[in-house]
Specification:
Length: 250
């Protein structure tokens, strides 16, 4: 397959997944931001679709999968799951299955580590330079495969069906006294969980604790309640203490 181009569909509330996706593609090609509703987008046959999303509790966020379904095509696709050093469990399989359901041919997949969005002391500073270099190497390997004698050879990724039962975490970011109601968080929330007219509030039925509002707030006014943060950090320190490395499937 010659004259290939990248298109990336990325859900990245706090930026770690975007950094990995950009390193894989070398910053080339069109990017579909899955943090907002995606229009119907046909993907040309000479295009490699990179679908990248973070892992929440061993799964891909449902909103990312719903918006990814707006992309259609029959060409090659690559799935990338980005997780906070604990485990990606069924996420990579779930993302791969979604791409195949959309008509794409799964020819590659990878799992990368990024700083944990809720407990930032876990995998702090990742993706680091070594991670980004590994991502760039993976991107080159994908293109090399597509230029080879068996470009559309399918891949098998880890995971189980039915997928892990995940209902989210029982806590959500809250606005503190330093909030000035600027509305930035409300305008950028991927699921509309923060009312534009009352940005100090959070709708617990909609919020997926993606931490975008916390990462964006210019005053640091949005935080996770301290007891929940401490408990989550302690649990992850025990379960995710040893740094994990990127995994490729080609």
């Amino acid at each position: 397959m010659n004259d290939l181009h990248w298109i990336s569909a990325v859900f990245s509330p706090t930026g770690g997944t975007t950094a990995i996706a950009k390193a894989i593609t070398g910053g080339q090609g069109h990017v579909v931001d899955l943090a907002v509703p995606a229009p119907s987008t046909p993907v040309a046959g000479n295009t490699v679709l990179l679908a990248a999303a973070p892992v929440f509790g061993g799964r891909i966020p449902a909103v990312a999968l719903e918006r990814l379904a707006a992309l259609s095509g029959s060409g090659p696709a690559v799935a990338v799951a980005v997780y906070g050093n604990r485990d990606y469990e069924d996420a990579l399989l779930e993302l791969s299955d979604a791409l195949k359901a959309g008509g794409f041919q799964m020819i590659g997949a990878a799992a990368f580590v990024a700083q944990h969005s809720i407990a930032p002391t876990i995998a702090q500073g990742r993706p680091d330079q070594a991670d980004l270099e590994a991502a760039a190497s993976f991107g080159r390997a994908v293109l090399d495969k597509l230029a080879g004698p068996n470009p559309l050879a399918p891949v098998t990724v880890p995971g189980n069906t039915p997928y892990k039962d995940w209902k989210g975490v029982p806590f959500h970011p809250a606005a503190g006294e330093s909030c000035i109601s600027c509305g930035l968080c409300a305008s950028r929330c991927p699921v509309g969980a923060i009312p534009a007219g009352s940005p100090k509030e959070t709708d617990p039925e909609r919020c997926i604790t993606c931490m975008r509002c916390v990462s964006l707030c210019p005053r640091g006014a949005r935080t996770i309640p301290a007891p929940a943060l401490q408990a989550t950090t302690a649990m992850l320190t025990e379960k995710a203490g040893v740094p994990r490395q990127p995994e490729f499937f080609l």
